[in-house]
Amino acid sequence: MKLIRMVKVGNITNLSDARYCAGMGVDMLGFTTIEKQPGYVGPETFQEFRGWFNGPSVVAEVYGLPDGETLHEIMRNYLPDFVELGIAELPFVDLPSLALIVSTRGMQSAEKFLQQLATIHNQVAFILAEEEVEASDLKSISDHYPVLLQLTKPVDEHVLALPVKGFALKGNTEEKPGLKSYENLATVLEYLTKD
Predict the structure, then answer these.
(1) Are strands 6-10 and 2-3 parallel, antiparallel or unpaired?
(2) What interhelical angle do 15-23 and 43-50 show, nearest 10?
(3) pLDDT tens, 30-47?
């Protein structure tokens, strides 16, 4: 099974989501790595998950990052392929080798957002665009960086026509271990499946 666009599923909190997404060909799995943030997955739990899925790149979601030392700990404990963060967390990025996914969360304008990224331009792998970003801003950003569009609604031909590299989805909680609904994820992933 092959997806026609790149897909990142973030906020993974359970092994069921991680394995389901890996099996569906998702490119990246994101885990909340900051304590006290909703959906936090500690290093030990993450390592348990990591032994059960293969294929997708790992994204450390660091929204709410308090300092640079915490980022260094996350890098040691999770060994992520990418670090996802917002503009508020950028001052704590002091590792020039980090591949970043920067969210438009809190963006005032595309012009100002792009200026804020100027000093780390070479580290930005993707921009995670919130779904409510204006089409003109999305176009401006996609002229400079590959964009993953955060989806909360089903995909349609209009969404596929947008100037984006791929899409970002969110995992959801399990009712109890092994019992959960994949309806939201399945709807989008099946739409993006290439036979």
Answers:
(1) unpaired
(2) 40
(3) 999 999 999 999 999 999
